[in-house]
User: Which sequence fits this backbone?
């Protein structure tokens, strides 16, 4: 495999992974557009390696060290995560920072409409999504050592500044709706209510693994965007994703008969989550969904830029995803009116 030096990985594993024994074979997962991820099969078992992509990267992006830290901290809590094994910060080993974790078996569901399931199964899976999201936001930050995992201050003010800067750095052409969305999000931002929890940053069904027999989550994956912040960001992110068209790329529920499919409405999912946390339904929820559309547009613009620069994990898919940026910007403006 040209982009991963198996011999170097094997030598590093022998020195840093307890109980490791070769020979080693590597298979790249074809999902994900951010940090390339590989399955490692060895005589001692199966592992997963996740690395920063090669090439010039945006500052603070692809933080695999943060992924490693947060998942290691969550091991043994009510939040299911893979067991972290070792972090390599020496970029000379394979050309970029990486970490190795235990391989977790389970179903990866990449379509929230779950076409191969029956109505009751679909409902149980979504109910589990609400339960696990509440568990993430209820993590005792002091107990797990994550009180310093994000900077202080208004989460939304900070995130708007960060993602506006990331978007501008990866801009490939003018987009008036995105400019208007950024301006309105700044002008209409709700006052900071002081809510501060662990947030996943990209919580959706295809970043989870489920037991092969039961509707139980075995692992929440892809913690690259995790930080301390406002829990409504994750909740709004789920609802944002569902507004997209169904299918392998939109991965949404727009236009589908959710009742017939056994899937909850947006409001019902929000109510499930709030019941788990014992909180009231949020006010001005349209703002938070609009923000989720803005942030995803900025992320996809970065994917598009990396594809054009030749640094994307899957350049062809990256360009297709980048084509969604104008739609996300328009939908963000629409949700601000709700």
Assistant:
């Amino acid at each position: 495999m040209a982009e991963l030096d198996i011999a170097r990985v094997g030598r590093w594993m022998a020195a840093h992974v307890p109980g490791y024994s070769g020979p080693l074979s590597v298979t790249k997962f074809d999902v994900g557009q951010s940090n390339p991820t590989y399955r490692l099969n060895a005589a001692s078992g199966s592992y997963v390696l996740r690395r920063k992509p090669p090439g010039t990267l945006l500052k603070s992006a692809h933080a695999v060290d943060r992924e490693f830290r947060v998942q290691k901290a969550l091991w043994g809590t009510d939040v299911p995560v893979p067991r972290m094994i070792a972090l390599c910060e020496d970029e000379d080993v394979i050309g970029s920072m990486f970490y190795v974790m235990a391989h977790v078996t389970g179903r990866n569901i990449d379509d929230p409409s779950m076409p191969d399931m029956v109505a009751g199964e679909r409902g149980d899976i979504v109910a589990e999504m609400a339960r696990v999201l509440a568990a993430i936001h209820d993590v005792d930050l002091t107990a797990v050592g994550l009180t310093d995992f994000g900077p202080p201050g208004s989460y939304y003010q900070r995130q708007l500044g960060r993602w506006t800067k990331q978007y501008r750095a990866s801009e490939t052409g003018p987009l008036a709706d995105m400019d208007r969305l950024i301006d309105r999000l700044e002008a209409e931002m709700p006052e900071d209510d002081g809510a501060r929890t662990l947030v996943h940053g990209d919580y959706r069904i295809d970043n989870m693994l489920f037991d092969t027999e039961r509707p139980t989550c075995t692992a929440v994956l892809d913690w690259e965007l995790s930080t301390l912040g406002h829990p409504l960001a994750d909740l709004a992110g789920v609802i944002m994703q569902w507004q997209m068209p169904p299918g392998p790329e939109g991965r949404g529920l727009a236009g589908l008969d959710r009742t017939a499919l056994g899937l909850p409405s947006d409001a019902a999912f929000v109510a499930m989550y709030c019941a788990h946390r014992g909180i009231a339904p949020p006010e001005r929820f349209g703002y938070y969904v609009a923000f989720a559309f803005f942030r995803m547009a900025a992320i996809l613009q970065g994917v598009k830029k990396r594809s054009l620069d030749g640094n994307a994990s899957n350049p062809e898919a990256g360009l297709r995803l980048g084509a969604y940026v104008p739609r996300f910007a328009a939908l963000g403006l629409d949700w601000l009116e709700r």
